[in-house]
Amino acid sequence: MRAANADSVLAAWLNAQTNVQTWSASVIQTRALKSLTRPLTATGHVWFAAPNRFRWELGDPPQTIAVRQADQMLVIYPKLKRAERYPLTGEQTGPWRDTLALLEAGFPCSPGELESRFRLVGQTTSNHVHEVTLQPRSASARRLMLQIKIAFATDDFALRATEVQFADGSTMRNDFTGAVLNSKLDEATFSPRLEDDFKIVEPLKRK
Amino acid sequence: MKALRHWPWLLLLIPLAFGAARLRFDVEVLNLLPGDVPAVEGLKLYQRFANASELIITVQASNAENAEAAARIIADTLVKQTTLTSSVVWQPPWLEHPDQVGEFIAYLWLNQPPEIFGRLTNRLSPANLTNVLAGAREQLATSLSPGEVARLSYDPFGLLALPEAAALESPAFGQGQDQFASADGKYRIIFVEASEDLSSYRACISWLGKIKFWVQNCLSSQTTGNDVVVRFTGRPAFVAEIAGGMERDITMSVCSTVAIIGALFWWAHRRWRPLLWLLALLALVLGSTLALGGLLFGTLNVVSVGFAAILLGLGVDYGLVLYQESLCAPHLSARELRQILAPGIVWSAVTTAGAFLVLNFGGLPGLAQLGSLVAIGVTLAAVVMLKLFPLLRLPPPSLPPPDAAEYGRRFADRAAVVWTATLVGLLVLVAVLAGGFPRIERSADSLRPRRSSAYAAVEELKGRLGRSQEPYWLLIVGRDEKEVARRLEVIQPILERAATNREIARFTLAAALWPRAEFQSANRAIAGRMASERELVRAAARTQGFAGNALELTEGLLDFWLRAAGTTKVLWPTNEMSRWILDKMTARTPTNLYFLGLIYPPTNGRPDSLEYARAPLSEPSWQAGLSTQLPRDNVWLAGWTMLGSALLEVVERDFWRVMLPMIALLLGSLWLAFRRLTEVLLSLFTLAFALACLLALMKLAGWSWNLLNLMALPLLLGAGVDYSIHTQLALRRLGGDLAATRRGVGRALFLCAATTVAGFGSNIGSSNGGLASLGQVCASGIAFAYLTSAFFLPVWWKTLVGGRRFAAEVAQSGSLVASRAMEHEPRTRHRAPLQQPSFLYRVEFWRLGLAATRIFPPRTCLHLGNLLASLYWTLARERREVVIENVLTVLAGDRLAAEKLSRELFRNFAAKVVDLWRYESGQSIDSLFGELSGWEHFLEARETGRGVLLLTPHLGNWEFGAPLLAQRGVALLVITLAEPQGQLTEMRRAARARWGIETLVIGRDPFAFVEIIRRLEAGAVVALLMDRPPEAGAALVELFGRKFRASIAAAELARASGCALLPVYLPRTERGYAARILPEIRYDRPALRSRESRHKLTQEIMRAFEPAIRQHPDQWYHFVSIWH
Predict the structure, then answer these.
(1) DSSP secondary structure code for residue B330 in this structure
(2) Interchain proximity A140–B177, CB inside 8 Å
């Protein structure tokens, strides 16, 4: 019964994602790295627009901004006045795919897409928060991320947290607060304007 | 005793055994090639790099998980087999051994210019540590790149952030899976290095077998899925494959050729014993050639082992020709067979061996060795077949006689067809070849094995890992690190310029990975100081919240710098990960250092494109352009793709060095064989026609010329010309009788051609592409040469050279055997027969002979005489023919027997002359006498009180009758004609006088007979030769049914003196000279008044000698024509 309940909760959440057009929230990111004796914490904000656009900002002022557009992803380092552009074409593999996977974790996706990319490892419910543990099906993805946990509220299916466990045992947890669902987002959110003194590089381009 | 005479041949076994013990096989393809070609030198240098010697195992599965699991299991299994493997790498080694990255990074930093190295050391200075670490923490907190987070976690000081040049050329630590797996992860590769020496091909085969066993074993015991496909490639796999192919090829080609030879022989002759004997001799030839190959070369390469089948196909020809001739002329002894066929076989062996020997000028050592082996084998085959094959004697089958009546009609019908076919054929050939000749393949694919799973695995690897464009290798050599570094500095800007100008697509020259001695020297002190301050680094890291494991990379770097500070030598990293990286592009030997760069050719008009393959060599290529810019010394641009063009240049340059001697040899052989311009031109036209057919076939079938099969051209000239030679000589011999030619030599030529085609053709199945194409072209060319010689040439010959004259003479002589004389002596039948003695019968030579018998022992003189007689018989054709003609009647027209007997006659005459010289030089000849029979007839005749006229023919040693009588106290008067020289006459008279024998020389003086009559009336004993009288004293009698001039002097003397007539002859027997006195010939003296009676008496006397002459025809010495 419990398993059946958990699956139905998950199914319900996935179903609820289809109604998400936009979503934004503040985020507190905690990184517990094996190479550090104490975890690192950063604050930031995240915006999402269906079907797959997002914007992450970490740090105050933002140290890193990642924007996914329809055909490319930009990673901007305001302090360094540098931006990296990654075209979203073809079957290229590489670190930037890992970055994308990390940033997309927990965002709305269809049941089919979730099923194709992840294997369900476990589910728990506690204090009206349902936590799903997923393992990437791709061996290359698993090389970086052993598993991903997604936590959402069982009443309104709002995304509460995501946690990525890395291959060396380090973790990166995002706790979301002040989430706003389906509000009108400024298009400029996903089309950042870079100043003229920014250096734009395309790391995937062969020399 | 007979066997002991052949003991010197057994001494040959010693070098053969030595050669067989030395024999080795070499499967290294590069050793087939000329070592002085830069492309080959470069490829040989490339073998020093790890890439060239590693085994690569490819693993393919239906999904990435299975592929990774299978690769991991295989790697784990093989790593444990330490006796087999020294290194097994299935993923980037920096991921497998992250703790080893520090040394490599330290090495890269140490090779930086001091100003750049200084920037790092400033970053690590105690005053700066806190800032650096704080910045790292901030990045760790805000970076969205998991890779960056992972890197900074363990590299908080940013040591991996190398200067741009070094960063580009060094591996991207944290990445690199694309070098080991396809994009979808379903295809992976594993690099394996052997722990044992794999320099020999047998070691490769054995080692690879063990590796395959372990791989199969570990996969079968796992549940990773049955869809895993494993393949093997890399040098050990290539070597094992080529070696295995070589062993299979030689076995298959030899076995198939032997089977075809056996089948053809059986089809033609249906006899086991000669077939088995033939095969046994072929085995002897093949084994001896292999042994000689081992003696001369030591090591045989993968192409030259193809010699075996070719040799069988060529060598068997000599045996077939000998056998066919023995069937046609069954009465010939082994010696006679050899005599008749030796010239043809020897010339054939000379041209064939010569053709193969010219391959030594072709520029390819591999082919040169093949050519030398075949030349040795063909020569051996000619000797062995000539010497040993005729020893097997079998009763022959009968051959149907030729039908002379059919000649004219068949020829007329056939001629029209053949000439029409000739013209049509020429038109077709022109039409086909007008569009161009078969193209020349410029690649080196002909050197590669065909149907190779290792090569297929390489192609799959290139496709799956996105490396479809094969780079060229830039190899830089130096005696030390500085020399190589200097050359790199010169080459780098050249390549950059070439890439900018699009002369090349791009290049990889990881110069940053090369140790820079001067920079290491400059940075050493600072590096040592940094290493000594590592406690400060640790403390700062602890303060900033970094755990101990965050400094593993840093500790490794400082350890290397500490080591660097403690030495003045150039420092290379030593751990497994570093070696794996550096071995891909560097190599070190005790004497030299090597660096490997990669150059990618331009994408337009790439050298491996079809357009370039068709372009003439004179068109400038990007390689040529780049080569002129690069330093000439110790820098090579190499690659398998350019090997083909480079070698083709060598082959084309040397082509005329090969062809010209071959053409000269061909023309010389044809002239010596025919001595007639028409027939020489016919042979050349036959060859040209066959060659044109070959070119047309190649064009239509899409075959191309390549490095190896270009050498078929001189081979075809040498081997293909034989058929036209044999055909035309047979036509001459048989008087232009096409049917007889076809029946006789046609079958033998068919067998010869078929076996040669089989020998070459058996290499079509070879695993080596070049050898297969050589076999294909040669087999086709030989087939065309035979077909043209067999079906077209006879008609061409008959039309242009003319068979009518020959056909009439054959019809007249009525036998094939008689017509053989046409070949050897076409003009002797039309010359006047010899009537004068040999020019050697002179006083000077007689004196020389007398002196020789005084100096040398009797046996020596006999042997010498034997030798000189044989030589004279061989060289004095006309005299020989006279003798043959003389004895032919005695032998009932058996020409072959007469030829055989004539040689014996010459030898016996030499022995007789030697004995005569001994006698005339005053030496004792008592030991030369044997039995005496009929002495009672002599005594009976003496008792009558009459004179005795001893009558003797030129049989045996008639001169010895005088000393025989002298021994018995009988004085003899010898009647002779004058010798050719007066001095000789006197010399011989004096020699007889020494024995108490009187000589009376008769000639034109008619009164000489008066003296003889007076002596006979007084009861003297007189000796008279009956045959070969002077013209005036000759009577025409019948001897052996033929008109013969005998001396009528005997009958005249009988009428005049009433003397007794006693026939006498002294033939040489095994027990010495036997004197045979026949019963007195009685006559009616008064009746002798009529000339007719005297003629009858002369006839009776000669008839009395017939049995003796018939018994000893080889001692009936007439060297001028005796028949009327």
Answers:
(1) T
(2) yes
Whether the pLDDT of residue B793 is over 70: the answer is yes
Task: Please report where in the chains the tokens 């599965």 appear, as a residue.
Answer: B61
Largest CA distance in chain B: 164
Kindly report the CA angle at B111 between B106 and B114, in degrees rounded to 5?
105
Q: Residue B830: CA atoms inside 13 Å, Cβ hemisphere, count?
A: 5
Q: Which of B6-10, B214-218, B625-629 tops mean pLDDT?
A: B214-218
Q: Does B1000 touch chain A (CB under 8 A)?
A: no
Give the residue from A171, A174, A163 showing the smallest Cα distance to A31.
A171
Chain A from 3 to 42: CB within 8 A of any B CB: 29, 31, 33-38, 40-42
Which of B62, B142, B603 to substitute to test the interface with A, most A CBs within 10 Å? Answer: B142
Return contacts of B530-534, CB within 8 angstroms, 24+ apart: B530/B121, B530/B124, B530/B558, B530/B561, B531/B558, B531/B559, B531/B561, B531/B562, B531/B565, B532/B562, B533/B126, B534/B558
Looking at residue B123, what is its pLDDT? 83
Write out the H or E segment, with its range, that includes residue B347.
helix B334-357
pLDDT digits (tens, 9 = 90+) for B458-469: 888 888 888 777
Residue A206 CB coordination number (10 Å): 5
B65 forms bridges with which residues in the sheet? none
φ, ψ (nearest 5 deg) of residue B57: -105, 125
CA A99 to chain centre: 9
The position carrying tokens 């270009």 is B710
In this predicted model, what pLDDT tens digit does every residue of B957-989 receive, in sequence order? 988 988 888 888 898 999 888 888 888 888 888
Q: Residue B859: what are its φ and ψ, rounded to 5°? A: -65, -40
| pLDDT beyond 70 at B619 | no
Question: Could you give the 3-state DSSP secondary structure of residue B813?
Answer: helix
| Angle of the B101-110 helix axis to the B552-565 helix axis, nearest 10 | 50
Question: How far apart are alpha carbons B725 and B343 in whole angstroms?
Answer: 12
Q: Which residues pair with A53 in a beta bridge?
A: A49
What is d(CA B988, CA B839) in angstroms, rounded to the nearest whole number? 17
CA distance B691 to B685: 10
> Any idea which residue has 């369900």 for tokens?
A120
- From CA B629, how far away is CA B501, in angstroms rounded? 13
The answer, for B499 touching chain A at a CB cutoff of 8 Å, is no
Residues forming beta bridges with residue B546, ordered by sequence position? A36
Other beta carbons within 10 angstroms of residue A198's beta carbon come to 15
Question: Which ipTM score applies to this complex?
Answer: 0.88
Whether pLDDT at B400 is above 60: no
The residue length of chain A stands at: 207
B707's CB contacts (< 8 A; 6+ apart) are B364, B441, B444, B446, B447, B644, B647, B648, B651, B770
Q: Band of the pLDDT at B401, cuts 50, 70, 90? A: very low
Beta bridge partners, B202, equal none
8 Å CB contact of A36 and B141: no
* B988 to B432, B1020, B1067: CA distances (angstroms): 79, 21, 21
Question: Measured between CA atoms, how close is A5 to chain B, in angstroms?
Answer: 31
A70 CA: distance to closest CA in chain B (Å)? 19
For residue B590, with 0-12 CB atoms within 10 Å meaning exposed, 13-18 middle and 19 or more buried, which class applies? exposed
Question: In this structure, what are the phi and psi dihedrals at residue B415, rounded to the nearest 5 degrees?
Answer: -60, -45
Distances (CA, A) of A47 to A56, A85, A183, B721: 7, 19, 10, 90
Poorest-pLDDT segment among A29-43, B237-251, B559-573 = B237-251
CB B108 within 8 A of CB B159: no
The amino acid sitting at B602 is: P
Alpha helices per DSSP H over B630-676: 640-674
Quote the CA–CA distance of B666 and B314 in Å, as a whole number.
17
CB B73 within 8 A of CB B224: yes
